[in-house]
Every structure is written in structure tokens, then in C-alpha cells.
Design a protein that fits this description.
about 170 residues, about 5% strand, 2 domains, 2 strands, two-stranded antiparallel ribbon, mainly alpha
Length: about 170
């Protein structure tokens, strides 16, 4: 999983660099427009307003595109190391944890809560995102590309939750 994450991060960094170049280019155009209007007086107010509005809109859209591309720079190796220590000992940690950490554990392992029929727990509404990626390992050379991750959003959310738990520990 770490190898896939690193490859995805490289792709995201390239996309972020392109988005930053686009935003910088638009900002330079806006700066030149300001200079033409304020200092050189080479354009009138109507022309300035029309172009400035369009450039500000483009700049806002470029910044939104950049922001939607960004993935937080998570310490994935550290978080996974922490998760490797926590998962096998979750029951022991639950017993020893104060209420606030128990609530965090509960959100981590049971994001939509658990069902209780009055006598016992009968199941969970949803599987934690990290566990939904665990599946049978196929034999090597079966000729099919493994597309385990359709979207990183659930996994990133789960990693953030583990990171918050790690920070509180």
C-alpha cells in the first residue's frame, strides 16, 4: 500500500506544480493589468474592470483546482507504523483508554456506529475504510491489473483519524 501511495503522491505533486504555474501566470497577468491601469494609464476603467473581473475569476478557479488536487502531507509511514501497533492490541488499548480516546477508537473502527438489540451488539453499519481495502491476495501473474483504490478519499480520511489518535496518545 505504501508503494501505491508514494506513486500517487508523485502524480499529485506534478498536478499541484502545474496548478501552481497556472495560478502564478494568471496572477502575473493581473499584476500587469493593475500596472497598466494604475501607473501607465494605458487603459480606461471599464476595460480594467472587465479584464480584472475575468482574471480574478480565473485565479479563483485555478486556486480551487489546486486545492482540490492537494492531499495533506501526511506522515503515512508513521501513521501506518502506529496502526500496525494499535490494531493487534485494540481491545487492550480500549480497556486502558480514557473516555475521549475510547470515543476516537469508536469512530476509527466503527465510523457509523454499532447496532445493539438490547441484549448484545449485532453488527456495524459500515466497515472502516482501511478494512475495506483488505482483500484476498491473488496469485502472481494472473494477468489482471489490481485496481484496489478507486478513490483515495476514504483512505485519507481513515489515515487522518489514525493520525489524530496517534497525536492524542
Amino acid at each position: 500500500m505504501l508503494g501505491i501511495w508514494k506513486a500517487r503522491q508523485a502524480s499529485v505533486r506534478a498536478d499541484l506544480a502545474q496548478a501552481q504555474r497556472t495560478a502564478d501566470a494568471i496572477q502575473q497577468k493581473l499584476d500587469r493589468l493593475d500596472e497598466a491601469f494604475l501607473f501607465q494609464r494605458s487603459i480606461d476603467i471599464e476595460t480594467y474592470d472587465r479584464h480584472a473581473e475575468r482574471l480574478r475569476e480565473e485565479l479563483t478557479l485555478a486556486r480551487i483546482a489546486k486545492h482540490s488536487t492537494e492531499l495533506d502531507e501526511l506522515d503515512v509511514e508513521g501513521i501506518l507504523g502506529f496502526a500496525e501497533r494499535v490494531l493487534p492490541h485494540a481491545a487492550d488499548l480500549w480497556v486502558q483508554a480514557p473516555l475521549e480516546q475510547r470515543q476516537r477508537f469508536q469512530l476509527l473502527f466503527f465510523p457509523e456506529g454499532m447496532s445493539f438489540d438490547g441484549q448484545r451488539f449485532v453488527g456495524t453499519a459500515a466497515t472502516a475504510p482501511a478494512f475495506s481495502y483488505l482483500r484476498e491476495i491473488r496469485p502472481a501473474g494472473d494477468g489482471v491489473v489490481d485496481l484496489t483504490f478507486k478513490s483515495w478519499n476514504p483512505l485519507v480520511g481513515w489515515l487522518r483519524a489514525v493520525d489524530c489518535l496517534r497525536a492524542a496518545a
